[in-house]
User: Fold this.
Amino acid sequence: MRSIAVENDGNCPVFHPEFLEKALSLARDRVDRVRGKISTDWPRRSTKPDHEGVVRHPLWCDDSAVWFCLHCDGKITGAQIAQNLWHCPGCGAPPLDIFNTAFWCEDDGKSLSPVKMDGTKDNDKPDFRVVDDRPKLDLNAEKITLLIRSALLDDATNISEKLGALHAEITVDDDNGVWVSLEENLWPHDKEPVQALVVAAQLGLGVELEKMWSSIPFHWPGLGELTASTSEYTQMMLEAYAKYDSLPNGKT
Assistant:
């Protein structure tokens, strides 16, 4: 029986004898019912060895008194494998990995030793394992970049600055230092990205700011300084392009 808890403080109910006995009783009953269900689905020869210990594989339909586990190179008797519902009694490998010949060995498994039982099948002592399943924050470069860019959008007050936030180049180095390059034509040279700096400080990161010149997505970046509405900016941009007869697909 296995118990999992987040703290190994000795208060887990599985350490109480009455609870443990009740849990084991329920588990044994469940095992018997599962075994009964499997027995009706599998051939009888798969769960009942004959007088020579021969059993039939429930999937391959091969008959043998000796079986081999592909994972642990174990030699298993027919009685063992039938009793353990065609799972390796040593490593727990499923029926798909159990074969009547060790075809992966040069001597077909003659040199393999009998499988060693792991001893857990009939062990009533709980196998206690501490598991910490609390969510953990993994601040990789991709996530840091996402947060910094979102903060830049918080700093933006018009469409030009929003485009600048989206167009910014953000680099995170091996020491989690952050370099933010803002397009000169989209982000005001004297405007400090306050929210981006706040977020970086919250994450314990240093920030280096710099300006860059690059190909901007649209002409006349100053149009974006006149509105905070994307639809309004789009209309102004279309009208500006229309004056130069440069709309795509002949639109006016």
Strands lie at 2-5, 55-56, 63-64, 66-69, 75-77, 98-99, 127-130, 169-172, 178-183, 207-212. The radius of gyration is 34 Å. The mean pLDDT is 84. The longest helix spans residues 17-41.
